[in-house]
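Q: May I have one protein plus its fold?
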Amino acid sequence: MGSYVEKARENHVKKKVEEALRSKMKAKALNECDQYVSKYAECATGRTFSVVWTCRKQAKELNTCLHQFTNDNVLEEMKREYMLQEEGKVSVSTM
C-alpha cells in the first residue's frame, strides 16, 4: 500500500514538473517569435470578427514559428535536460 502512495506522489511531482516545462517552453516560444506576435497584434488591433480572415497570413506565420518551439520533440528534450540536471544534483549531494 505504501508503494502505491509513493508512486502516486512521484506521478504528481512528474505532472507538476511537466506543467512547469510546458510553461517554460511556451514562454520561450513567445519570446523567440516576438516579431510575429507583434505583427499579428498590430493586424488584430481594432478588429473583432474580421480578424479571422483579415489577419490569416499573420496568424499562419505566428503559428508556424510557435510550432518550431512548442512540439513534442522540444518537450522531450527539455525533459531529458531536466532529468540530467536532477541526476547531477543527486550525485553531487551523495558525495
